[in-house]
Design brief:
This protein has about 220 residues and is α/β, with parallel strands linked by helices. The chain is about 35% helix and about 25% strand. The protein contains 6 helices and 8 strands. Helix 1 packs across helix 6 and helix 3 packs across helix 4.
């Protein structure tokens, strides 16, 4: 566990899973309702590190302060920038990729659009939150067209925060973007028994897709 302080944002904690023979570094931001120690975050980080991808996880300020609401995106995007600078300085020779579970990935997309980041090689979205439940829309994807680096969308077919046909429509209109669909999975990548898969199977699939895409 690492810790650094920012005058405006306060405490920012960071946890790194070092990989043997690391091929790249993937920074993973948490979703809106759970921090960097959520089982999804720790599991995907461990699996990726076993596939030669070093991972770094961090908490947004509101999570550090025990608040439930993310609040204004401004401070969370700034936190993303600070964590990225920290990782870039630590791993100066490694390819760096950004990713996030839901909200964390969405904030990463805004970071890339708002800043010149030539050393960032791509973004992975673990469930892009395209819209609120029951309010199908593509408005939240408007900024994605301005991203010039590769993007990988990993989406559950039963995700209530991303109508799959709309998500596929968005991705088809982006350059250097691809999508992998996890059948029957919801926004948390849970799958029903009828799918014939377990949560562990899905996590392994997500990790393997991510690692393969990063290596390419």
């Amino acid at each position: 566990m690492e810790l650094f302080l920012n005058e405006k944002l306060g405490k920012i904690t960071l946890e790194i899973n070092e990989a043997d023979s690391s091929k790249a570094v993937l920074i993973i931001a948490h979703g809106a309702g759970a921090g960097m120690h959520h089982p999804f975050m720790t599991s995907i980080s461990k699996l990726l590190s076993e596939k030669s991808i070093t991972t770094a996880r961090f908490n947004f300020p509101y999570m550090e302060q025990g608040r439930k609401s993310p609040g204004s995106p401004k401070s969370n995007i700034e936190t993303w920038r600070l964590v990225l600078e920290h990782i870039m300085q630590r791993y100066q020779d490694a390819p760096i990729f950004l990713s996030g579970k839901s909200y964390g990935g969405r904030m990463a997309s805004h970071l890339v659009v708002e800043n010149n980041l030539p050393y960032v090689k791509g973004i992975i979205y673990f469930g892009f939150p395209l819209h609120a439940p029951g309010k199908d829309s593509i408005d939240r994807a408007a900024n994605l067209v301005n991203i010039k680096i590769p993007q990988l969308f990993l989406q559950g077919s039963n995700d209530k925060l991303a109508n799959l046909s709309m998500m596929e429509q968005v991705v088809s209109g982006l350059k250097l973007a691809s999508i992998e669909t996890i059948a029957h999975a919801d926004h948390s990548f849970n799958v029903p028994k009828k799918s014939g898969k377990t949560k562990e199977d899905v996590l392994e699939f997500l990790a393997e897709c991510s690692a393969t895409w990063i290596r390419k």
